[in-house]
Amino acid sequence: MRLTDLWDRLDRTFGPEYAASVAADQVLPQLDGRTIVAALDAGVPAVTVWRAVVAAYPDRVPGRLR
Fold first, then answer.
1. End-to-end Cα separation, the chain, in angstroms
2. Per-residue pLDDT tens for 2-37?
3. What is each CA distance from 15 to 8, 11, 43, in whole angstroms?
4. From what superkingdom does this record's organism come (predicted)?
5. For residue 55, what pLDDT is reported?
6. Which helix (H) or strand (E) is 37 found in, with range?
7. What are the backbone angles phi and psi of residue 34, rounded to the nearest 5°?
8. Among candidates 52, 21, 30, 56, which has minimal Cα distance to 11?
């Protein structure tokens, strides 16, 4: 997964403004207690980050984006 695909999925899941907030502020246990932005900065692959988002927000992520 490309980084642009990850951001597109985040925007489609949360809306553009809220997606940025989720990415910067929400600590996900699936990312070893890091935010999405921190995990990406640490070199975690975008697909791994997306899987963590799906696991953390199963009711929010549309089925077509899983």
1. 12
2. 999 999 999 999 999 899 999 999 999 999 999 999
3. 10, 5, 25
4. Bacteria
5. 96
6. helix 36-41
7. -110, 160
8. 21
Would you say residue 66 has pLDDT above 90?
no
Q: Report the alpha-carbon angle 37-40-44, nearest 5.
A: 145
Neighbours of 22 (CB within 10 A): 21
Cβ–Cβ under 8 Å, residues 6 and 50: yes
Length of the chain: 66
CA distances from residue 37 to 20, 28, 50 in whole angstroms, order as listed: 9, 11, 12
How many CB atoms lie under 10 A from the CB of residue 40?
19
Alpha carbons 14 and 32: distance in angstroms, whole number: 22
